[in-house]
Protein backbone atom coordinates (compact mmCIF):
# COMPACT_ATOMS: atom_id res chain seq x y z
CA UNK A 1 0.00 0.00 0.00
CA UNK A 2 1.51 3.25 -1.18
CA UNK A 3 -1.21 5.78 -0.35
CA UNK A 4 -2.08 6.03 3.35
CA UNK A 5 -4.58 8.44 4.87
CA UNK A 6 -4.23 8.99 8.63
CA UNK A 7 -7.01 10.80 10.45
CA UNK A 8 -5.81 12.44 13.66
CA UNK A 9 -2.49 14.06 14.52
CA UNK A 10 -2.21 13.53 18.27
CA UNK A 11 0.36 11.38 20.04
CA UNK A 12 -0.60 8.19 18.18
CA UNK A 13 -1.52 9.72 14.83
CA UNK A 14 1.83 11.51 14.59
CA UNK A 15 3.70 8.30 15.44
CA UNK A 16 1.72 6.40 12.81
CA UNK A 17 2.52 9.07 10.21
CA UNK A 18 6.21 8.69 11.00
CA UNK A 19 5.96 4.90 10.79
CA UNK A 20 4.50 5.07 7.28
CA UNK A 21 6.73 7.94 6.13
CA UNK A 22 8.63 5.65 3.76
CA UNK A 23 5.51 5.19 1.64
CA UNK A 24 5.22 7.34 -1.52
CA UNK A 25 2.05 9.15 -0.37
CA UNK A 26 1.05 9.69 3.25
CA UNK A 27 -1.49 12.26 4.37
CA UNK A 28 -2.25 13.05 7.99
CA UNK A 29 -3.76 15.83 10.03
CA UNK A 30 -6.20 16.86 12.68
CA UNK A 31 -9.45 18.78 12.75
CA UNK A 32 -8.34 21.46 10.27
CA UNK A 33 -7.26 18.76 7.83
CA UNK A 34 -10.48 16.77 8.07
CA UNK A 35 -13.45 17.23 10.38
CA UNK A 36 -14.21 13.59 11.10
CA UNK A 37 -17.54 14.62 12.61
CA UNK A 38 -18.72 15.69 9.15
CA UNK A 39 -19.45 12.88 6.68
CA UNK A 40 -19.07 15.11 3.61
CA UNK A 41 -15.66 16.29 4.83
CA UNK A 42 -14.40 12.73 5.17
CA UNK A 43 -15.88 11.47 1.90
CA UNK A 44 -14.64 14.47 -0.06
CA UNK A 45 -11.12 14.00 1.25
CA UNK A 46 -11.09 10.30 0.38
CA UNK A 47 -12.44 11.02 -3.11
CA UNK A 48 -9.79 13.67 -3.67
CA UNK A 49 -6.78 11.71 -2.36
CA UNK A 50 -7.75 8.17 -3.43
CA UNK A 51 -5.90 6.45 -0.58
CA UNK A 52 -5.23 2.72 -0.47
CA UNK A 53 -6.15 2.59 3.23
CA UNK A 54 -7.53 4.77 6.04
CA UNK A 55 -6.20 4.73 9.60
CA UNK A 56 -8.45 6.47 12.11
CA UNK A 57 -6.54 7.76 15.13
CA UNK A 58 -8.80 10.80 15.59
CA UNK A 59 -10.50 10.89 18.99
CA UNK A 60 -11.44 13.03 21.93
CA UNK A 61 -9.25 11.31 24.51
CA UNK A 62 -9.38 13.59 27.56
CA UNK A 63 -11.44 11.37 29.82
CA UNK A 64 -12.58 14.11 32.20
CA UNK A 65 -13.32 16.56 29.38
CA UNK A 66 -15.65 14.00 27.82
CA UNK A 67 -17.79 14.20 30.97
CA UNK A 68 -18.03 17.97 30.47
CA UNK A 69 -19.02 17.73 26.81
CA UNK A 70 -20.68 14.40 26.14
CA UNK A 71 -22.16 15.64 22.86
CA UNK A 72 -18.74 16.40 21.42
CA UNK A 73 -17.42 13.07 22.69
CA UNK A 74 -20.19 11.28 20.81
CA UNK A 75 -19.66 13.38 17.68
CA UNK A 76 -15.92 12.66 17.54
CA UNK A 77 -15.65 9.19 19.06
CA UNK A 78 -18.87 7.61 17.78
CA UNK A 79 -20.00 9.41 14.63
CA UNK A 80 -16.41 10.01 13.49
CA UNK A 81 -15.55 6.31 13.13
CA UNK A 82 -18.90 5.71 11.43
CA UNK A 83 -18.08 8.42 8.88
CA UNK A 84 -14.63 6.97 8.28
CA UNK A 85 -16.19 3.54 7.81
CA UNK A 86 -18.74 4.90 5.33
CA UNK A 87 -15.99 6.55 3.29
CA UNK A 88 -13.78 3.45 3.36
CA UNK A 89 -16.67 1.22 2.32
CA UNK A 90 -17.54 3.54 -0.56
CA UNK A 91 -13.94 3.52 -1.77
CA UNK A 92 -13.54 -0.23 -1.22
CA UNK A 93 -10.41 0.20 0.90
CA UNK A 94 -9.32 -1.06 4.35
CA UNK A 95 -10.04 0.91 7.51
CA UNK A 96 -8.11 0.47 10.75
CA UNK A 97 -9.85 2.16 13.68
CA UNK A 98 -8.24 2.67 17.08
CA UNK A 99 -10.29 2.10 20.22
CA UNK A 100 -9.55 1.80 23.93
CA UNK A 101 -9.30 -0.39 27.02
CA UNK A 102 -11.75 1.99 28.71
CA UNK A 103 -14.68 0.17 27.10
CA UNK A 104 -14.40 -2.21 30.08
CA UNK A 105 -15.58 -1.64 33.65
CA UNK A 106 -12.43 -2.89 35.36
CA UNK A 107 -13.98 -5.66 37.44
CA UNK A 108 -11.91 -8.44 35.84
CA UNK A 109 -8.83 -9.99 37.39
CA UNK A 110 -7.31 -11.38 34.17
CA UNK A 111 -6.47 -9.39 31.03
CA UNK A 112 -9.52 -8.72 28.88
CA UNK A 113 -9.90 -10.66 25.64
CA UNK A 114 -11.97 -9.78 22.59
CA UNK A 115 -14.68 -12.14 23.85
CA UNK A 116 -15.25 -10.21 27.09
CA UNK A 117 -18.34 -8.03 27.31
CA UNK A 118 -17.68 -4.27 27.38
CA UNK A 119 -19.28 -2.19 30.10
CA UNK A 120 -17.82 1.33 30.11
CA UNK A 121 -17.95 3.46 33.25
CA UNK A 122 -17.34 6.87 31.66
CA UNK A 123 -18.64 9.04 28.84
CA UNK A 124 -15.31 8.54 27.10
CA UNK A 125 -15.60 4.76 27.26
CA UNK A 126 -19.24 4.85 26.18
CA UNK A 127 -18.48 7.06 23.19
CA UNK A 128 -15.56 4.89 22.09
CA UNK A 129 -17.62 1.70 22.37
CA UNK A 130 -20.38 3.32 20.32
CA UNK A 131 -17.74 4.22 17.73
CA UNK A 132 -16.66 0.60 17.49
CA UNK A 133 -20.23 -0.54 17.00
CA UNK A 134 -21.09 2.09 14.42
CA UNK A 135 -17.91 1.48 12.40
CA UNK A 136 -18.42 -2.29 12.38
CA UNK A 137 -22.10 -1.98 11.47
CA UNK A 138 -21.35 0.44 8.64
CA UNK A 139 -18.39 -1.48 7.24
CA UNK A 140 -17.94 -5.03 8.59
CA UNK A 141 -14.44 -5.21 7.06
CA UNK A 142 -13.23 -2.55 9.52
CA UNK A 143 -10.29 -3.64 11.66
CA UNK A 144 -10.75 -2.33 15.20
CA UNK A 145 -7.70 -2.29 17.45
CA UNK A 146 -8.17 -1.64 21.16
CA UNK A 147 -5.16 -0.20 22.96
CA UNK A 148 -4.49 1.27 26.40
CA UNK A 149 -2.09 3.25 28.60
CA UNK A 150 -0.34 4.81 25.62
CA UNK A 151 2.91 6.75 25.78
CA UNK A 152 5.14 8.04 23.02
CA UNK A 153 7.44 10.68 21.67
CA UNK A 154 4.75 12.97 20.27
CA UNK A 155 2.63 13.61 23.34
CA UNK A 156 2.64 14.09 27.08
CA UNK A 157 1.66 10.85 28.78
CA UNK A 158 1.72 9.48 32.32
CA UNK A 159 5.21 8.18 31.60
CA UNK A 160 6.49 11.66 30.78
CA UNK A 161 4.70 13.10 33.82
CA UNK A 162 6.48 10.61 36.07
CA UNK A 163 9.88 11.28 34.47
CA UNK A 164 9.41 15.02 34.95
CA UNK A 165 8.42 14.53 38.58
CA UNK A 166 11.55 12.48 39.23
CA UNK A 167 13.79 15.06 37.60
CA UNK A 168 12.22 17.93 39.51
CA UNK A 169 12.13 16.13 42.82
CA UNK A 170 8.34 16.42 42.98
CA UNK A 171 7.16 12.83 43.05
CA UNK A 172 3.53 12.39 41.99
CA UNK A 173 1.25 10.03 43.91
CA UNK A 174 0.70 6.83 41.94
CA UNK A 175 -2.26 4.51 42.17
CA UNK A 176 -1.57 1.08 43.59
CA UNK A 177 -5.06 -0.14 42.69
CA UNK A 178 -5.19 0.75 38.97
CA UNK A 179 -3.77 -1.90 36.65
CA UNK A 180 -3.22 -1.86 32.90
CA UNK A 181 -0.70 -2.53 30.14
CA UNK A 182 1.66 0.35 29.30
CA UNK A 183 1.96 0.43 25.52
CA UNK A 184 4.20 2.52 23.28
CA UNK A 185 2.75 4.29 20.28
CA UNK A 186 5.49 2.78 18.13
CA UNK A 187 4.29 -0.71 19.10
CA UNK A 188 0.77 0.27 18.05
CA UNK A 189 2.04 1.75 14.77
CA UNK A 190 3.76 -1.56 14.06
CA UNK A 191 0.50 -3.36 14.79
CA UNK A 192 -1.42 -1.13 12.39
CA UNK A 193 1.11 -1.90 9.68
CA UNK A 194 0.70 -5.62 10.33
CA UNK A 195 -3.10 -5.38 10.30
CA UNK A 196 -2.98 -3.79 6.85
CA UNK A 197 -0.32 -6.19 5.59
CA UNK A 198 -2.31 -9.23 6.72
CA UNK A 199 -5.67 -7.83 5.59
CA UNK A 200 -7.20 -8.22 9.04
CA UNK A 201 -10.76 -7.25 9.86
CA UNK A 202 -12.79 -7.50 13.03
CA UNK A 203 -11.82 -6.75 16.62
CA UNK A 204 -8.37 -7.22 18.16
CA UNK A 205 -6.60 -6.17 21.32
CA UNK A 206 -3.11 -4.79 20.76
CA UNK A 207 -1.02 -5.00 23.91
CA UNK A 208 2.43 -6.19 24.90
CA UNK A 209 2.67 -9.07 27.33
CA UNK A 210 2.07 -8.58 31.03
CA UNK A 211 0.47 -5.83 33.09
CA UNK A 212 1.24 -3.65 36.08
CA UNK A 213 -0.13 -1.04 38.46
CA UNK A 214 0.51 2.67 38.02
CA UNK A 215 2.84 2.37 41.02
CA UNK A 216 4.81 -0.50 39.47
CA UNK A 217 5.11 1.45 36.22
CA UNK A 218 6.45 4.44 38.14
CA UNK A 219 8.94 2.33 40.07
CA UNK A 220 10.16 0.78 36.82
CA UNK A 221 10.73 4.26 35.39
CA UNK A 222 12.47 5.42 38.58
CA UNK A 223 14.80 2.45 38.65
CA UNK A 224 15.80 3.12 35.04
CA UNK A 225 16.38 6.87 35.16
CA UNK A 226 17.47 7.56 38.77
CA UNK A 227 20.53 6.56 40.75
CA UNK A 228 18.55 6.91 43.95
CA UNK A 229 15.31 5.13 44.79
CA UNK A 230 12.88 7.72 46.17
CA UNK A 231 9.48 6.37 47.19
CA UNK A 232 6.39 7.59 45.39
CA UNK A 233 3.44 8.70 47.51
CA UNK A 234 0.74 6.04 47.49
CA UNK A 235 -2.44 6.97 45.66
CA UNK A 236 -5.66 5.00 45.39
CA UNK A 237 -8.05 5.14 42.46
CA UNK A 238 -10.85 3.96 44.76
CA UNK A 239 -10.69 7.16 46.81
CA UNK A 240 -9.45 9.63 44.18
CA UNK A 241 -11.73 12.55 43.44
CA UNK A 242 -11.82 12.35 39.66
CA UNK A 243 -14.54 13.77 37.45
CA UNK A 244 -14.74 10.62 35.33
CA UNK A 245 -14.58 7.07 36.60
CA UNK A 246 -11.71 4.88 35.41
CA UNK A 247 -11.61 1.08 35.28
CA UNK A 248 -9.44 -0.26 38.10
CA UNK A 249 -8.25 -3.12 35.88
CA UNK A 250 -8.05 -2.58 32.13
CA UNK A 251 -5.17 -4.79 31.03
CA UNK A 252 -5.70 -6.20 27.54
CA UNK A 253 -4.68 -9.63 26.26
CA UNK A 254 -2.99 -9.32 22.87
CA UNK A 255 -2.66 -13.05 22.20
CA UNK A 256 -5.26 -13.15 19.41
CA UNK A 257 -3.50 -10.41 17.48
CA UNK A 258 -0.13 -12.09 17.97
CA UNK A 259 -1.60 -15.33 16.65
CA UNK A 260 -3.24 -13.60 13.67
CA UNK A 261 -0.05 -11.87 12.59
CA UNK A 262 2.67 -14.26 13.72
CA UNK A 263 4.95 -11.25 13.98
CA UNK A 264 7.98 -11.44 16.24
CA UNK A 265 7.85 -7.71 16.96
CA UNK A 266 4.57 -8.19 18.81
CA UNK A 267 6.24 -10.59 21.29
CA UNK A 268 7.36 -7.84 23.63
CA UNK A 269 6.66 -7.21 27.30
CA UNK A 270 5.38 -3.89 28.60
CA UNK A 271 8.59 -3.51 30.61
CA UNK A 272 10.97 -4.04 27.69
CA UNK A 273 9.06 -1.51 25.57
CA UNK A 274 9.07 1.02 28.39
CA UNK A 275 12.79 0.64 29.04
CA UNK A 276 13.49 1.15 25.32
CA UNK A 277 11.53 4.42 25.43
CA UNK A 278 13.02 5.96 28.56
CA UNK A 279 15.81 8.55 28.37
CA UNK A 280 18.64 6.60 29.99
Descriptive report:
The chain is of the alpha/beta class and 280 residues long. It has one domain (3-155, 180-211, 249-263): 3-Layer(aba) Sandwich (Rossmann fold), CATH 3.40.50. 41% of the residues lie in helices and 15% in strands. The chain has helices at 11-19, 39-49, 63-68, 70-91, 123-138, 158-168, 185-198, 214-225, 255-261, 270-277, and strands spanning 3-7, 25-29, 53-56, 95-100, 143-147, 150-151, 174-175, 179-180, 183-184, 202-205, 212-213, 234-235. The strands form four sheets. A six-stranded parallel sheet has the order 2-1-3-4-5-10, sandwiched between helices. Strand 4, helix 5 and strand 5 form a beta-alpha-beta unit. Helix 1 packs across helix 7 (185-198) and helix 4 (70-91) packs parallel to helix 5. The radius of gyration is 18 Å and the shape is globular. The protein starts with a strand and ends with a helix. The relative contact order is 0.15. The model has no long low-confidence stretch (mean pLDDT 97).
N-end to C-end Cα span: 36 Å
Q: Strands of the largest sheet, in order across it?
A: 2-1-3-4-5-10
Radius of gyration: 18 Å
What ranges have pLDDT less than 50 throughout 5 or more consecutive residues? none
| Overall average pLDDT | 97
Tell me, briefly, the overall form: globular
CATH H-level superfamily title: NAD(P)-binding Rossmann-like Domain
Tell me the β content: 5-15%
SS class: alpha/beta
CATH architecture assignment name? 3-Layer(aba) Sandwich
Largest sheet: 6 strands, parallel
Q: How do the SSEs run, as a string of H and E?
A: EHEHEHHEHEEHEEEHEEHEHH
How many structural domains are formed by the residues?
A: 1
Oligomeric state of shown chains: single chain
The CATH topology comes to Rossmann fold
What is the share of helical residues?
40-55%
Total number of helices: 10
CATH domain class name: Alpha Beta
The total of beta strands comes to 12
